[in-house]
Specification:
Order of helices and strands: EEEEEEEEEHEHHEHEHHHEHEH
Oligomer: single chain
Number of helices: 9
Strand content: 15-25%
Largest sheet: 8 strands, mixed
Mean pLDDT: 91
Shape: globular
CATH superfamily of the largest domain: Alpha/Beta hydrolase fold, catalytic domain
Radius of gyration: 22 Å
Number of strands: 14
CATH topology of the largest domain: Rossmann fold
Low-confidence stretches: none
């Protein structure tokens, strides 16, 4: 997310397009936005700002001279030292030559001195490291490179954390979503994520045996396609409340959210949409092949992704996977929560700890983190 300004003539109410300018910040990767300012008559615009290495800050920007005043320097995060971490942007190339941005963060001491990169090389690491690749890619929602304290257990155990800004999201504008990532172009989302994973492997960031991936809800649809299309690329997958039984859900208008969702995926009562949706419905495309370790979570009272979707998917995966003696498909149900996990913050943290313990155990990293 970026902030842009344009001058407006108060007498005519017209804006001057030539005055368009971006509000600049020091870091390359960040997220920012306009926050609530309850003073009506004020020259100050309140802004929130964070990055993958900077906890959330709140600032007042004086619209008269663009100067900024810090209100809250940083959200308090226990035992966090931002100087220990570094983030950067890399790009993967999709089969249609589209450049897919990725945001990467890791500890500065991830690499030993003898592994240090050559001077000027900011994109290619010297040795593969365990990596978590996160994606969503639907509804035009931006997955910004803001601060997420829940990824610190990964980073402090020597992992790289990467966000794939795939088509279907809104990171590169409405075109990234409306024209490239929905309806009959939805498969771009899944191919983009695979291209990102391939880039990380081909350029030495990680290996398939040390690469994990995560997505929730519509991001679970992404995970469902990833494991069907390229199960060999990943060691572990976390699919949270995954939307995986696309055809049965979208063909049943009695389900409360179904008809509204036709605006995202298409109306299956139309042949062209039916056939296209069927080609990427995760449940319908499970087949006999090896699958990575998969953790599936669900909530009994989820109004968006009914609990039977992940249950059916888990059962079908277990039936068809040809390496069940090596890898696991775990299905964890919460009998009290809905789509957004537990409302009890401590229970929510325990759920996150479970997810991360699964990933760390499969990547062989379940030891004490760095301080």
């Amino acid at each position: 997310t970026r902030l842009w300004l344009m001058d407006k003539d108060r007498s005519t109410g017209l804006v001057d397009p030539a005055s368009l300018r971006q509000v600049a910040f020091d870091e390359e990767l960040y997220e920012c936005g306009v926050s609530i300012n309850r003073e009506y008559d004020t020259p100050f615009c309140r802004i929130h700002y964070s990055s993958l290495t900077t906890p959330t800050q709140w600032l007042d920007m004086d619209m008269r001279d663009m100067s900024r005043k810090m209100l809250i320097k940083e959200e308090a995060v226990l035992n966090f030292d931002r100087s220990l971490y570094v983030c950067k942007r890399v790009y993967a190339t999709a089969p249609d030559k589209t450049q897919i941005p990725m945001s990467i963060v890791h500890r500065k001491d991830l690499y030993d001195e003898e592994e240090e990169q050559e001077e000027g090389d900011t994109t290619t690491p010297p040795a593969p490291k365990p990596t978590m690749l996160y994606g969503y890619g639907s509804y035009g929602i931006c997955i910004d490179p803001g601060f997420h304290k829940l990824i610190l257990p990964y980073l402090d155990r020597g992992m790289i954390y990467c966000i794939a800004h795939v088509r279907g999201g809104g990171e590169m504008g409405r075109y990234w979503y409306e024209e490239q990532g929905k309806y009959l172009n939805k498969r771009n989302t899944f191919q983009d994520f695979i291209s990102c994973a391939e880039h990380l492997v081909d350029n030495g960031f990680t290996t398939p045996s040390t690469l994990a991936a995560e997505g929730r809800s519509a991001g679970g649809l992404l995970m469902g396609n990833v494991v069907n299309w390229r199960p060999d690329l990943f060691q572990a997958i976390v699919a949270g409340v995954p939307f995986v039984d696309l055809m049965n859900t979208m063909c049943d208008p009695t389900i409360p959210l179904t008809t509204g969702e036709w605006e995202e995926w298409g109306n299956p009562n139309t042949d062209k949409f039916f056939d296209y949706m069927l080609s990427y419905s995760p449940y319908d495309n499970v087949r006999a092949q090896p699958y990575p370790n998969i953790l599936i979570t669900a909530g009994l009272y989820d109004p968006r992704v009914a609990y039977w979707e992940p249950a059916k998917w888990a059962s079908k995966l277990r039936t068809h996977m040809t390496n069940a003696d090596e890898n696991q498909v775990l299905c964890k149900f919460d009998l009290e929560s809905g789509h957004f996990s537990a409302s009890d913050r401590y229970k929510y943290l325990r759920e996150k700890a479970f997810d991360q313990a699964f990933v760390l155990s499969k990547l062989g990293l379940a030891e004490t983190p760095k301080k």
